[in-house]
Amino acid sequence: MELLNCEQKNLLSELIHGLNAAKQLQAQLGADPSPRPSSSSYSSCLTTEMKETLLHQIVSSYEKAILMVNTTQHNPTTETVVTADPVSGKVPESPTSIIGSPGSEEFLDGGLSSKKRKMLPKWTEQVRICPERGLEGPHDDVFSWRKYGQKDILGAKYPRSYYRCTFRNTQHCYATKQVQRSDGDPTIFEVTYRGTHTCAQRNPPPEKRESKPNPTVVNSQYDLLDNLRTNLTARRPRTTNGIEGDGFSFPVTSPFYSYESINGDFGNGGATYCHVGSSGPSDFTGLISTNTSTGSSPIFDVDFHFDPTAEIDTTFHTFLHDTM
DNA sequence: ACGATTTGACCGCA
DNA sequence: TGCGGTCAAATCGT
User: Fold this and answer.
1) pLDDT tens-digit series, residues A70-106
2) Looking at strand B, which nucleotides approach a protein CB closer than 7 A?
3) CA A56 / C1′ B11 distance in Å
4) What is the pLDDT of residues A120-134, one digit of tens each?
5) Residue at minimal CA–C1' distance from B13?
6) CATH topology for A122-194?
7) WRKY domain location, by residue (predicted)?
8) How far is the CA of A114 from the C1' of C4 (A)?
9) Which nucleotide is nearest to A111 (CA to C1')?
10) Contacting residues for A10 by C-beta, under 8 A, at least 6 apart
11) Could you tell me the CA-to-CA distances from A232 to A19, A23, A39, A40, A46 in Å, in that order?
């Protein structure tokens, strides 16, 4: 273990900065349901310009943070760049973020329809393979995949490989990924993930992540944590045709474990301590509680603390690298 | 023997 | 109708 180096501090600083900006924006958006900035009756509300500034700060902070993760990686074989899904425009989610549950309806019929497949979250990573390590294939992520197909793609020099979760049948996990070697640079693989893991792999696998003070992870709380991420999405006012505007989603979801619930759970006004990172609560801890004053769509109060003197587990970085 | 990979066939969508 | 994505039988590796 080593103390945080400068880049790691910068990374966390950017993440915290982005989080704070998001919180401000969320608070303002939550307080101001009116889409008309000029007609707002709330004197404390931010102007549209200020909101845009905050949004810019959030996006900028996360972009910097991601860049830092990419450039400070120690993984000798690969280098990963994450791009948002150009269709949805969403900031990529982690492969381990949980959407849906194995017990939900669409998972009970033994498979997903093509429509439902299309609805699954999708994001792309660009993975560079270190030439001196050979071109044995794209980087390993923390998940176990099984190849189920390969196709020659029109206009592409290299075939595309199709993988699905090894536990598709046993655990009804419908995460898939596609791997396509870049035409321009054969050392770059584009890895497109679709769907999120609902299998047991979403917990840190023993071979990759040490399950130290084993966080108490209950499915429902995982779902709540995912809800949290969803609810932390900065919402812009609806447009005139009633369609939700573009939003910003938090990219950091994977190393996000709850380890202690107090006063029940999120759903009934309780609170849960969380930490980012897998080494223990001291890495980056926070208290998440529901704000029940907002009616049917609960707003989560997030209060994160980071102790700059605390040691940080390098698996956190590896995990971010592998999954973002 | 069992699980993973390969590969041609099939299907849905634009 | 062509293309991308998936299926499933055949094959391979341990």
Assistant:
1) 444 444 455 666 665 554 445 444 444 433 444 444 4
2) 4-9, 12-13
3) 44
4) 778 887 877 765 544
5) A114
6) N-terminal domain of TfIIb (2.20.25)
7) 134-197
8) 12
9) C6
10) A64, A68
11) 9, 8, 25, 22, 18
* In the block, residue with structure tokens 């993440």: A15
Q: How many other CB atoms are there within 10 angstroms of residue A180's CB atom?
A: 20
Per the CB < 8 A criterion, the answer to whether A173 and A143 are in contact is no
Lowest-confidence pick of A47-56, A242-251, A272-281: A242-251
- Name which residue leads in pLDDT, A234 or A79: A79
A160 CB inside 7 Å of strand C = yes
Where are the domain boundaries for CATH 2.20.25.80 in chain A?
A: 122-194
Q: Kindly report the pTM of this predicted structure.
A: 0.46
For residue A28, what is the enclosing H or E element?
helix A6-31
- Are the C-beta atoms of A268 and A281 separated by less than 8 Å? no
Between residues A267 and A124, which one has the greater pLDDT? A124
